Each structure stands twice: as C-alpha cells, then as structure tokens.
TrEMBL record:
It comes from Aestuariispira insulae. Residues 466-487 are annotated as: Disordered. Residues 37-218 form the FAD-binding PCMH-type domain. The keyword Nucleotide-binding does not apply. GO terms for biological process: respiratory electron transport chain. Transmembrane segments: none annotated. Its cofactor is FAD. This is 4-phosphoerythronate dehydrogenase (FAD-dependent). Belongs to the FAD-binding oxidoreductase/transferase type 4 family. It holds the Pfam family FAD_binding_4. Keywords: FAD, Flavoprotein. Residues 476-487 have a biased composition (Basic and acidic residues).
Amino acid sequence: MPPHPAIEQIKQILGSKGWADEDGMLAPHLVDSRGSYQGRCLGLALPATTEEVSRIVTLCAHHRIPIVPQGGNTGRVGGATPDETGTALLINLSRMNNILEIDPEGHAITVEAGCILQNIQQAAADADRFFPLSLGAEGSCQIGGNLASNAGGINVLRYGNTRDLVLGLEAVMPDGRVMNALTALRKDNTGYDLKHLLIGSEGTLGIITKAVLRLFPRPTSQATAFCALDSLDSAVDLLGRARADSGDAVSSFELIPARAVEFASRHVPNTRPPLDDIPDWCVLLEFSGSGAAPSTNKDLESFLEGAFEAGLITDAMIAQNEGQRSDLWRLREAIVAAQKPEGASIKHDISVPVQAVPAFIRQANEAVTEACPGIRPYPFGHVGDGNIHYNLSQPEGMAPAAFKAREEDLHRIVYDITQSLGGSISAEHGIGRKKRDDLARYGDPVSLDLMRAIKKALDPDNIMNPGILLPTETNDNDKKPIRENRP
C-alpha cells in the first residue's frame, strides 16, 4: 500500500522522535493486552504537545484518516487496537508525560494524558496527598486511557470511579480544535459538563490531552484483614456492617473464592493461604484513616469481633505489619494471573446492585454448569460497588479450543442473568470492540440513539476510533433492527 499523502506532513509536524513505522516499533501497539485483536496502521504518531495533537488531528480530519488513540495499551476489550485495514493512524501520548502542577491546599494535580498512573500516585504522595485510582496495570497504564475508559479499581467503594476523580480536562476534538476545560473548580454551573462526554468515550469523541485530578488527604493508617465468610450471603451483610461500624472508612472490600486461593497458591510464587482452612468464600477488606494506626487497628478488631458474634465470619487474619499487608494484596493480585495456567478462560466484567451479588453468582454458577458440565466458575471482585469479574475456567481435560468455542453461548447466559438483575455488562473495562454487539442487545435503545446522535454531531466523518464502543444500527447477532426491541 503506497503511503498516504498526508504522512509526510504528519512527520514534519512531529519530527524524528515523534514518528514510527518500523515493524519492530509498531508490533506491541498493534495487538491488545489479551492477544485477542491484531491490527495494522499507517504509522504511530508520538506527539509531544497539545498543539502537535491538534495539528495532526486537523490534517486527519481534512483527509478523513481514521484515528486510534492509544494509552498504555492495557485495555481488556480491544478499544485501542486498530483494525486490519491498515488505514488508521495510531496516536499515543506517551511523550506527553509531565506533571504540570500540584496544589496540595486545593487538593488537585494537573497532568498530561501520557502520565503513568503510578507516577501520579507517587507525585501525590510526595506532596502528602493521595490519588486513589489503583489498578493492576498502574505501572504501565496512562491516565488518558484511564479517563477514556472510566477505569475502576480497588478503591471505588470509598472514592468513586475515575469519572469522580476529575475536575477538568483539555481535549482535542475530531476537527482539531482544542476544548479547554482545564479547571480545578469544584463548582461551575455554566451549562453542559462536557468533560463527562469525553470520560468513558473510549476515544470516539476526541483525544484527552491534559486533566486536573482530585487529590485527597493521605491516609496515615491502614488496617487490613482476610476474613472467612460463613456464606456467600454474608458478604453483603458484612459490607454493610463494615461501613456502618467504621464511619464509612472501608477503602477496599474484595470477594475471593476458595478456588482462586487454591489456584494462586499453586501457580504464583510467594503466595500462600492466609488461613489454615479456606472456606468457599472469603473477603479481603481494608479500613483506612487519618488517625493513628493503633486506633484504626482497634476499630477493625472491634468490627471483626462483632461480625464473628453475628455469625457473618468464621475466622479472620489481621495484618500485623506492612509485610503481611503486602502479602494479602499480593494474593489478591495473584488470583488474576493464577487462572491462566489452569487452561483457557472466558471472562466477564459485570456489575449488579450490591444486594444482588450473591443471587447473581448462584444463578450464573448453576446456569453455566448446566450448559457446560465440569466448568469451573472463578468469580471475584470488588463487591462494594457491585462489580464481579465473573471468569470461567475450562473443565479439566477439555481442549482449550473446544472451550473457547462455547464463549458466545456462555456470554449470553451470563449477560442475560446480569440484565435480569438490573446490572451492566461492563462495570469497569469498557465496551471497546469486544462488547460492541453485546451493547446493541442489552443497551437501552433510546440511550444508544442519543449516543449515536452525539457521535454524529461531534465527529460527522467518524474518524475518531471508528468501530469502537458504538454498535451499528443493526444487531449483528440477531440480524434485526434494534428499533424492533422498542415497546
């Protein structure tokens, strides 16, 4: 394929450090983090300033060149991978990685979109403040991608999703103009809050270039415990009691099944069960506060005593030092990697109302086991925000390819139950390419029409991440118009 005539102009804008088209440089950017999607592109643009992004997008708009914005490429739904046509330009903001300002008194930090999440956390800590967004990929994911996907993480219960942590944004729109809403104001009642169109839009409405993020007082004490639940239903009761007894100081509340502890202990080095006897269901919970550590530990101990007396837990281990706390969180992170050695897996990132979590897991376990005998459900997650990563491991002895061939049927079972309980098919990973057609099936038709109208108004030529997030007017699974689903 001959080079597009606009490529030379883009190269001139970027300079030698801002352009790559060699196979070795492009390869890691052309496949998603799970290896599910492989694409091609015209080249990789690495702008260093908002002005460069603006000039590139203006050129692409003029020539109608599709653009795929990409952060750290840690996404789970193929939302930052170009398609196979090779007609799109990849734009990665990794060179725009500066922390521009920290305002400790105003509890705000201004950053460029290419900043690594972990670096933002550290900058906040250095200023005696706390940025609560925390993900497994925080050492490599970029904040622009976190914003574009409205990432979740382990601290949503107390601090909210990424959307709740943003005060202001700067973004380059599909025509190349720069929207400057880069403000630290807590109150600004001057019309539509346009930043929320960009947050969670997965690069389909513009490219986020800078952000003002909320900071919080740095927790000075943390108390962490691993609890053996009396039953799955006890998880919701334990959460409610924890929030009430702690004055809503619960920062994390993670549901962990016995199977996950077993897999992690078997496959991940330096990981072991925290308790002698692991029941079917456990919870890793953490209190955090600004007081002295002994006070926080005492609050946790008092809470656990009450939970034991109430019959909600049968055993618990409280971390006595930072090393033990790290061990508990290493176990939580290990349960993700531990599933792979057990063979093929099928993953779901769903949410339901918190009180419906036990019902969802029971119904889903029963339904997938009936559909695929021997299947090994592997549900874990945040519970406090209703988010369950409902993963499924292949039956022992089943060929991985045969199990993966059941993926669409198992997705349908899980998503049907999720919808019946008033839930969402995507809690924190987004829609991307993977769930686009599922959104057509399970999304509200009016909401989808409004989303298409917004996309058409802001990006009439559909150059921003085309084929991502928004389903077409027809549900490809059923081959019938979405409108027929309307009452």
